[in-house]
Amino acid sequence: MSSQKLKIVSLLALSVVLSFFKIPLFPYAPFLTLDLSLLPILIALVALNLRASLQLLIYKFILLSLLQGFSLLVIIGNFTDFLTGCLLVFFMAWLQKDTFWEYFLNVVLTTSIMCGINNWLIFPMYQHFFQIKLSSLLIWTAILPFNVIKCSLLIWLTRLMMKSRLLLHL
């Protein structure tokens, strides 16, 4: 097994383990739980490359769906996390400078797009498959602040690791 593949497998294992440590942020939206499972994927982007990071996102989606069961509820949740990861990775790769404004723009773009995806794709899926009526007010009171917190924390931790040279040996 090559060194690159070993790193990808190790980061995948770390990502899957981290996905099981969830912190609910809003009592009125218990389905929004913060986990740091995207952190190893962002680390892969910085330490390896874009391709490795995207591979990790796909493998994580498949592996978590296998481990948690292929229920529609699990797949929708994992798909939403997958989309968030894709956006974070894409914008971090696109905005390659290590400045506050680049990270701020990443958070704003990812959060804005995820609010739209939730409003026009995820919420209608929940309504169609589970007959759950989700108010668009939930976008502003839960989804928006949740994505700002999650994206900011993940980007800040990744940046902190880059600055402290923790990724040198990866």
Report the uncertain regions: none
Give, in order, the helices and strands: HEEHHHHH
The largest β sheet comes out as: 2 strands, antiparallel
Radius of gyration: 16 Å
What does the average pLDDT come to?
A: 88
Taken together, the total number of domains comes to 1
Lateral strand order in the biggest sheet: 1-2
Number of helices: 6
Approximate helicity band? over 70%
How many β-strand runs? 2
Shape: globular
Percentage of residues in strands? under 5%
Oligomer: single chain
Structural class: mainly alpha
CA(first)-CA(last) distance: 16 Å
Could you characterize what this model shows?
It contains 6 helices and 2 strands. With 170 residues, it is mainly alpha-helical. It is globular and about 45 Å long. It is 74% helix and 2% strand. A two-stranded antiparallel ribbon has the order 1-2. The mean pLDDT is 88. Helix 1 runs antiparallel to helix 2, helix 2 (39-47) crosses helix 6 and helix 5 packs across helix 6. Strand 1 and strand 2 (33-34) form a beta hairpin. It has helices at 3-19, 39-47, 50-68, 72-94, 100-130, 137-163, and strands at 23-24, 33-34. The chain has one domain (37-163).
Brief descriptors of the model:
6 helices; mainly alpha; 170 residues; globular; two-stranded antiparallel ribbon
